[in-house]
Amino acid sequence: MSMNNPELARVALTYPAIDNHAHPLLREQYRNSFVFEGLISEASPGPGLTQDATNTLACYRATLQLGKLFGTNTEHWEDIKQIRQSVDWLTLCRICMEPTRIQCLLLDDGLGGVAEYAAGYKWHDQFTQSPTKRIVRVEVLAEGILKGVMDDIIRTGSAVDGPALVGRFKQHLHGALSQAATDPEVVGFKSIACYRAGLDIDPNPDLGALDRNLVMTLLRYEVTKTLRLSDKAINDVVVNMTLRVAGECGKPVQFHTGLGDNDITLSLASPALMQPIIKAYPNTKILLLHSGYPYTREAGYLTAVYPNVYLDFGEIFPFLSADGQRSTVKQVLELCPTNKILWSTDGHWWPESYYLGSIQARQTLFEVLSESINRREMSESHAIAIIKRALFENANKLYNLNLQPYYSG
């Protein structure tokens, strides 16, 4: 980093951080279960991931940064893959996690594959000074509940009664959400409605459609033995109930927005579509994930005009180029109040995702804010306060963590 604004550089590099949205690391025996190029791209497995992703500016930068971390000057991605394979898994995790200065992890452990391949959330405490907490992915919770209800109907041979099925599903879902909301290990909820039916969530779900959708889901499940909530009416009910319960219990709800793999419909991934649902639950704190990229300005607008809306700027590290990251952070800061922005890595599977997500974010914040200082648009103390809020203070307050920043020296 430049020697201009040295105190800002020190804070940007060393201030403790709360990673407010991430996922568990793999267990050692499964360290090679996923294609490593997923570290630098959301592309689905195949040529788009193994060939295209390695020819991006994001990959070139990650290669150089990981090479420096591993003590080599290589500029070749395949060298990085070979080097990391030669390192014991726990040692690799420590090498990557120590420089991040992450004090606390908030983990969504409902990501597909976590139960089979990943470590439990408390396992991650060995890398942080404060205990890891959980974020409950509500669609996965709802799928488990609905599967249980349907298994019971199939096992007992009960007649399929649409209204009764709706009633049982809603009752069990409300109970599970309420139980999670009062669990001290759970600090918030997360919805992936963006992946399932889009972000145009209806504050008044069509109960007639819900009846039909649940019956059709039951019939499909009876044949295929697989269940995935992708019908809009069902997803709308899940989200509305989550927002209601979360608001009553004072816990925030994260929403995947924007940047994601090809499972989303991009035109339905803009947080601007969420205005009706935001208005319907003014007492529920809503966090828009991933800067809403590429709809960052829309996301920032919502945080500026709705008191209950917050904006996370994770996942763009390391998926975007350095210029793209700077541009996105600048768009976040165009309108978004700085007491409502939160940082995350969206780290998952590989410890390198936490490392890159941390060092790139810290560097980007420093560079963007230094420019503003040098143009005399803010003081250095203003910029330092923004970094402290983004890395630690805003998440500490939003999730009611009651932590004090910890310095390890």
Automatic annotation (TrEMBL):
This protein's source sits in the domain of life called Eukaryota
Taking every annotated instance into account, which residue ranges of this chain make up the domain Amidohydrolase-related?
240-401
* Gene3D superfamilies to which the protein is assigned, alphabetical: Metal-dependent hydrolases
Q: What is this protein called?
A: Amidohydrolase-related domain-containing protein
Q: Which organism is it from?
A: Somion occarium
